[in-house]
Amino acid sequence: MKDYRNDVVWKEMQVFLPEQNRLSAGTMPEEYFIPVHDMNIHIDHYKVSKPKATVILFHGVGGNGRLLSFIAVRLKISGYEVICPDFPLYGCTQYSGTITYDIWVKCGCEILSFYQRQAARSIFLFGLSAGGMLAYQTASECPEICGVITTCILDQRNPYITKKTAANPLMGAAAKPFLGAMNKIAGKINMPMKAIANMKAIANNSELADLLMKDKKSSGVSVPIAFVHSMLNPALKIEPEQFISCPFLLVHPGLDKWTDVSLSRIFYDKLGCIKEIHILENAGHFPIEEKGLLQLEEHCLHFLEAYRNS
Question: Which of 65, 140, 157, 166 is the most buried (most CB within 10 A)?
Fold first, then answer.
């Protein structure tokens, strides 16, 4: 099975990160696969002795589990066990058939259940980018989550949000009717995600954005039309007003050129649970800028400490 040992993108990404957030010999994750239905889900596992809690990180449609090392390393150093799965279509996960977003939600629940069975400790979900809604949906369907953290929370059922996050205004206006029609006749056909979503805005550093968009394991991936159609029409089990099962933290980048905080607030403001929001200063959608990254770490650790079971 392929893993990240011979992958160059995550290695080249390190130079864009503050030194304290880079992977080193002492912070490298253990790699392995877990079976979920007919797939082998790749896992980056940042292990610590006597972990305070477990944090499962969900990537979005421009990343993979290894690219989340920028925050996983700091959580590990602070005493938290961190799990970074690759969802099918991305990273090193092995899969077959046509992948839809509904399968991602099922994977999220299965991955969570797997680690709940491993040890009786607090578990948090942390979703970055589109992983934010994925974390919310997983928490909605699964019990005993201590908290959800997201960098954005986008309800793509809202046409305004689809329009604002698409690759261009024409795609934003036509995405739902076009993909709905195409899904019926050609749902298995792949499209580059960067042709659909505004992937060039994934990072404020243009060199890093270019690196990721060329990566066939992250922003340069092609996905089935069925995947995009289902992602734009998610089936939420619990609407935000009724979501009270666990606390929610939104740590939104302040200079996000892809998903402005106003888009996340449409959903966040409706949440019925205990919630808090913090803006990461000078941080882009992929929040690697040092000041915002330090704030991300600080807010996450405060939240984890407040809501983990002692």
Answer: 65
